[in-house]
Amino acid sequence: MKKNPLSLALKKLAVRTVSKKEMDAYLAKHGFGPEERQQVLRQLTEWRYLDDQKLAQYWYDYYIKHKPMGYALLSRKLQEKGIPQDCLAGVLADYDEATESRLAESLAEKFLRRKSKSKLIKVKEAAGEGEETEGHIERAEAAEVGAESEENEAEKTRQKTKEALQRHLCRKGFSPAVILRTTEKLFPE
Fold first, then answer.
1. Nearest to 161 by CA among 149, 169, 173
2. Is residue 7 within 8 Å of residue 69, measured between CB atoms?
3. Which residues, 6+ apart, have CB-to-CB distance to 160 below 8 Å?
4. Whole-prediction pTM value?
5. Residue 13: which of 53, 55, 67 has the closest Cα?
6. What is the pLDDT along the chain (189 residues), one digit of tens a residue?
7. CA angle 140, 145, 146 (to 5 degrees)
8. Which of 19, 70, 103, 136 is least buried, going by the fewest C-beta atoms within 10 A?
9. CB distance 134 to 124 below 8 Å
10. DSSP state of 168
């Protein structure tokens, strides 16, 4: 016995909101023909259960607040969700360079906090337990290596961190100009 496509679609919507494209693909996967799928999509749109514009706005707001990313990656993520180009353009119109810069700086600061915290933990673990660990290691290294070598090492570490941050921001879809401005602001020469 073949299932009712409308019932199946409503069950899918009970789990999460989907785009028209996702719903069409879901119904096609369950063996329904184009006429049945179009009828169900029309009915769900009429009932306002399918609204690509609202869905696009929801995902835009979610990504901006909880998973900051650049314009390129955000656009791709929304397209993957089946958001049509016209809805995409309307939602992404608010995403300007100032927004992208603000999100990149926020993400960069979070990245640097996490990175510095993990380095401190590694230093403490390498030296064993103790409150004086950090100072003890620094004094021992300064005595062995010398002040000039320590400066070179600090500059190398700074450069590696800067490059790691640039790669991180690039993976998050930020534009090269925003990445450059952000790293120059956080790592002044």
1. 169
2. no
3. none
4. 0.76
5. 55
6. 568 999 999 999 999 999 999 999 999 999 999 999 999 999 999 999 999 999 999 999 999 999 999 999 999 999 999 999 999 999 999 899 999 999 999 999 999 999 887 765 554 455 454 444 445 545 555 555 555 677 788 888 889 999 999 999 999 999 999 999 999 999 987
7. 100
8. 136
9. yes
10. H
Q: How far apart are CA 46 and CA 62, in angstroms?
A: 25
Tokens of 74: 């955000």
Residue whose C-alpha is closest to residue 176's, from 97, 89, 65, 93? 97
Q: Where are the alpha helices (DSSP H) in the chain?
A: 5-15, 20-29, 34-46, 52-66, 71-80, 85-92, 97-127, 133-145, 147-171, 176-186
